[in-house]
Amino acid sequence: MSTRNVEDMDIVQLEPLLDPNDASRSSVEEGRESIKVEPLEVLPFICLLLQHASNTFNTGAHDFAIFLFLIEVFRDTLVPASLVGLAAKAAGLLLSGHVGGLVDRLPRLTFVRSMIAGEKGLEAVNYGLFLVLLGPLRNIAQSAFHGQATSLEVISTWTILLLTIAFSAMTSLAKTGMTVAIERDWITTIARGDPSHLTVLNTWMRRIDLLSKLLSPLFVSLLTTFTGYIWATTTLLVLSLATLVLEYWWIQVVYRGFPVLAHPEDDTADHDGSSVGQEDRTPIPKSIMDKAAAWARRERSDWAEFTRLPIFHSSVAIATIYLTTLSYDGTFISYIKAARGFDDAFIAIMRGVCVMTGMIGTVVMPFLEKRIGLERAGAWSIWFEVGCLSPVIFSFFYGIGIYGEHGSTWNSIILFGGIAASRIGLWAFDLCQLKELQLALDSHPRRNRLTALQISLQNLFDLLKYALTLAASTPRQFKWTAVVSWCAVVAGAISYAVYLRSVRGHLVHLEWFKKAC
Hints:
It is a single chain. This protein folds into 2 domains: 39-261, Growth Hormone, Chain: A; 307-505, MFS general substrate transporter like domains (Growth Hormone, Chain: A). With 517 residues, the chain is mainly α. 47% of the residues are buried. The protein has helices at residues 42-73, 79-105, 108-133, 141-145, 151-191, 195-226, 228-257, 278-281, 288-308, 311-320, 330-338, 344-372, 374-394, 409-440, 447-471, 478-504, 510-516. The longest helix has 41 residues, at 151-191. The protein is globular, with a radius of gyration of 23 Å. May be involved in iron transport and iron homeostasis. This is Solute carrier family 40 member. The chain crosses the membrane at residues 154-174, 237-255, 306-325, 345-368, 380-403, 480-500. InterPro entries: Ferroportin-1, MFS_trans_sf. Its main location: membrane.
């Protein structure tokens, strides 16, 4: 393996990695001892980015394709798409904590490889099911969904739909495992607690997330436009299997290139006397009821501990944002296709615009952190998002055209422009909150399990979103879900203000008002 390191790379964005002390420290980081961190080697660092890019691209393509295919097959209802999202988020809500516990206990490389294999395999199976749904059953699936077909056709359609729902839920759990393992555990371990390293690594990973959000739906849309749905599905199936091999190799290079990843987790007890291995030393329950009771006790204990931590209010803030239909997911896409008459190509372009504005947010965040500190940067970001989304709500009630038509130009500008601008605040806040979480749980013996509880919170609000869309299941009712979405973002901003006061002791500097007077 090459010994060439990051110091030899002519990449401006990596310069903070060379000097761990050049970034300003927030109030949460004050008092932390400076840790000398070795520069990162180029090959494993690049392989880390390649693996993450491949994983997020395939996941993004799968998520976009599933909803797009369901909308194509079941044109008159949002229920199938909502059921897929509902099942995935319910599984995440109940089992994310358990998945995080596995990250704490299992060898890092073994766990990640298992998640890669599971994720890619489940995606391939889902695409195989859609080959049937979009092929032999395409002309009768919609009527069969409503029971207006022969018994065999109804059973076949519902069987494939239920299998799609189940496999999508399992894919979501595998995605959670990858998120906790790579973006939380591996990144924090590689950074070795250095705040400037965390900022740079998190920023690179988030930029890849955003690029994947831009390219994956565009890729799927181009496939469906120029090759049709059958060939698009076949291509995605082959791509999932091919990238499985590549990601296996890339993650192996990363693991060997950063020896710190091979070190076992610290099993020493924390201040409360708990440890990573504590649950492994308890008697193993034998019956299913005993296992369920043990799981419930463990979940209750973990949630009780998590809610007592100051970071909990920050986690609630980022989680409430997930109760939104004002993003390019299945429900919003269904609305703008059916009620506003926009086609797949336009949707992909506007989603790309949102990704580019989100990329601006990843540039703004490090700048804000250096100027005003990490916590205040988070506050500025989330309230900026609230401000951008406020006029968007009015676009659902004024200036709208006939059902199925675009409506007035100014209405479309406010709708799509406001959502795009809000992505700057959203992604800047996401980076701020992620770093706060990493620093708060850095030395905790069960940091990955508690980190996964934040994902459970996010799944809870995402679950509420799908329940909301099931209640308002027609595109004509979508405007009320938009109002609820805006209220959720405001609630998140208020929750973050509670966190800000707990760590800083105040919300605003009174001397600013004294100077103004």
